[in-house]
């Protein structure tokens, strides 16, 4: 059915007609736009439907270029510790949750962040044992690069001091007793996860369905998500999304980043980057070059300012990482590489420079710590910087402690990247940060937490409202080579739009974004 959306303030991000009052949709695409009077006169008939927006602001549908729907779905399955501000509160929540479980049942959760704690550091293994004595416990940090376990969890994996740890992982030991502290880093988590019973297919599907619906309620029309390790492997991941998106028609356009471990499944299934349809597509091959800044595992070219002699950790040696990228190239696949530290970025760019490009753009994810020469190398049309503006209020001011003043000035440098000609796309890395794109947009514009009384962390890197919305709309189409079919409100493109309760481009202060609701999410012309 033809639909005519009238009386809106449409910010199209199309240079030919940047603002319009009405749009016409047919067969899921924009076919015309202009004034309300002209569009109604030209297109309205008994078989059309007219939707009055009563002056609401509209942008192209919001796109999140990097998140994890599967891990976000865990909030519907397990203990959610996101935003907890003290160790005492965290331990109380763990104990309360443990009381709901059967003896011996795994206590699973996610989301703690010791940087928010006002009463001390990370809980010790003894403290965790005291509140979960009857249950093996496994709780990833908000960044998913550090993990807490209790004694029962270590017993489940048959821990002993001489056991081998997966490459890139660490079991943190007490300096005096040389016994585990309860903290695992990076791939050491695999020692535990292989002993955790898998969720049933229906449990995963129901949680993923709720997460997709939640994402749409926040105005998202497209996402790029990395999930196979959390949804039972590639084949089950694809089946879940196929059933929810292509069969149930939930709507959210989804691009699947596929971990290197599952390249064989892609080959067996005859799939490749771009395989699928406008709703569900195969994306790039996901890899990791380093860890996280918070746990000092991001790989730096100079030592951490608050940990002399510590350069962070490479996830793989250079030869192995080169071979993994080469494996992707043999299938003509692009790569999407987690790259936080400047040395990790240098390593990745060195590898990409040695291998031929492919039709789809390569992606470096996070690119938080930069150097001038690396920025110049990033400004290549075959490369995308996937950035997460919400990291700024979450990570500062402790970033200054990790890096020192000089390096901090060229960190989380979104404005500098754009001015240098680097193609950037905006995302949340949910559940590391909230899935709500308006929170990421607010962070890019203000570079501070609401209520903080300063001009923002590295205020010279602030983006305008228009620049930031572009990150989460038009530029979100570039990593998947879809800039010709979505990202702007233009004739012939997919009719994806987000409608707001307040006009972001007429606000007196950016904090008004945090009071703004998504009134409607339109995907393929259909309001959700």
Describe this structure in words.
There is one protein chain. With 528 residues, this protein is α/β, with parallel strands linked by helices. Helix content is 29%, strand content 21%. The protein has an 8-stranded parallel sheet with strand order 8-15-16-17-18-19-20-21. The chain has a 6-stranded mixed sheet with strand order 3-2-7-22-23-24, with no helix packed on it. A 6-stranded mixed sheet has the order 9-10-11-12-14-13. Helix 10 crosses helix 11. The longest helix has 17 residues, at 201-217. It is globular, with a radius of gyration of 23 Å.
Features of the shown structure:
single chain, 528 residues, alpha/beta, eight-stranded parallel β-sheet, six-stranded mixed β-sheet, 17 helices, 29% helix, globular
Average pLDDT number: 96
Summed up, the helix count is 17
Radius of gyration from CA coordinates: 23 Å
* Strand-residue proportion: 15-25%
Q: Uncertain segments of ≥5 residues (pLDDT<50)?
A: none
Q: Residue share in helices?
A: 25-40%
SSE arrangement:
Blueprint: E1 3-6, E2 9-11, E3 19-20, E4 22-26, E5 29-34, H1 36-43, E6 49-52, E7 57-60, E8 62-67, H2 69-72, E9 79-80, H3 87-98, E10 107-110, H4 125-131, E11 137-140, E12 146-149, H5 151-156, E13 170-173, E14 180-185, H6 190-193, H7 201-217, E15 220-226, H8 234-247, E16 253-259, H9 263-269, E17 280-288, H10 318-330, E18 335-339, H11 342-354, E19 362-366, H12 372-378, E20 383-387, H13 391-395, H14 398-408, H15 414-419, E21 424-426, H16 437-446, H17 465-471, E22 497-500, E23 518-523, E24 526-527
Parallel strand pairs: 1-6, 2-7, 8-15, 9-10, 10-11, 15-16, 16-17, 17-18, 18-19, 19-20, 20-21
Antiparallel strand pairs: 1-4, 2-3, 4-5, 7-22, 11-12, 12-14, 13-14, 22-23, 23-24
Helix pairs in contact: 10-11
């Amino acid at each position: 059915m033809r639909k005519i959306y009238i009386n809106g303030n449409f910010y199209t991000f199309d240079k030919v007609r940047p603002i319009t009052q009405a749009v016409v949709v047919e067969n899921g695409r924009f076919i015309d736009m202009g004034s309300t009077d002209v569009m109604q006169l030209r297109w309205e008939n008994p078989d059309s439907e007219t939707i009055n927006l009563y002056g609401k602001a509209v942008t192209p549908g919001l796109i999140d270029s990097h998140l994890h729907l599967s891990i976000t779905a865990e909030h519907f399955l397990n203990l959610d510790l996101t935003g907890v501000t003290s160790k005492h509160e965290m331990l109380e929540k763990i104990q309360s949750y443990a009381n709901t479980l059967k003896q011996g049942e795994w206590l699973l959760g996610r989301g703690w962040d010791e940087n928010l704690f006002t009463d001390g550091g990370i809980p010790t293994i003894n403290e965790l044992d005291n509140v979960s004595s009857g249950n093996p416990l496994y709780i990833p940090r908000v960044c998913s690069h550090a993990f807490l376990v209790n004694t029962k969890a270590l017993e489940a994996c048959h821990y002993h001091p001489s056991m081998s740890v997966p490459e890139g992982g660490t079991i943190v030991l007490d300096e005096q007793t040389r016994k585990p502290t309860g903290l695992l880093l990076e791939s050491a988590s695999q020692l535990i996860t292989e002993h955790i019973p898998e969720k049933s297919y229906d449990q995963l599907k129901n949680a993923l369905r709720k997460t997709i619906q939640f994402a749409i309620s926040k105005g998202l029309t497209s996402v790029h998500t990395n999930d196979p390790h959390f949804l039972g492997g590639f084949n089950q991941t694809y089946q879940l999304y196929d059933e929810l998106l292509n069969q149930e028609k939930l709507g959210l356009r989804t691009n699947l980043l596929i971990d290197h471990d599952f390249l064989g499944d892609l080959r067996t299934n005859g799939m490749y980057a771009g395989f699928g349809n406008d709703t569900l597509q195969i994306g790039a091959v996901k890899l990791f070059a380093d860890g996280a800044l918070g746990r000092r595992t991001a790989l730096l070219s100079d030592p951490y300012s608050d940990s002399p002699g510590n350069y962070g950790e490479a996830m793989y040696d250079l030869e192995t990482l080169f071979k993994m990228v080469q494996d992707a190239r043999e299938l003509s696949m692009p790569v999407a590489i987690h790259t936080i530290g400047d040395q990790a970025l240098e390593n990745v760019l060195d590898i990409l420079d040695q291998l031929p490009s492919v039709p789809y753009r390569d992606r470096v994810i996070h690119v938080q710590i930069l150097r001038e020469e690396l920025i110049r190398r990033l400004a290549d049309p075959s490369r995308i910087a996937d950035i997460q503006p919400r990291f700024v209020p979450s990570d500062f001011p402790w970033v200054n402690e990790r890096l020192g003043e000089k390096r901090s000035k060229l960190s989380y440098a979104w404005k500098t990247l754009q001015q240098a000609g680097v193609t950037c796309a905006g995302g949340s890395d949910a559940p590391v940060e909230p899935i709500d794109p308006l929170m990421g947009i607010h962070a890019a514009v203000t570079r501070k937490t609401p209520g903080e009384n300063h001009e923002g962390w590295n205020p010279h890197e602030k983006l305008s409202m228009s620049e930031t919305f572009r990150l989460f709309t038009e530029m979100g189409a570039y990593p998947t080579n879809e800039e010709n079919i979505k990202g702007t409100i233009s004739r012939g493109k997919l009719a994806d739009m987000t409608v707001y309760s307040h006009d972001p481009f007429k606000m007196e202060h950016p904090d008004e974004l945090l009071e703004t609701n998504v009134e409607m999410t339109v995907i393929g012309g259909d309001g959700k």
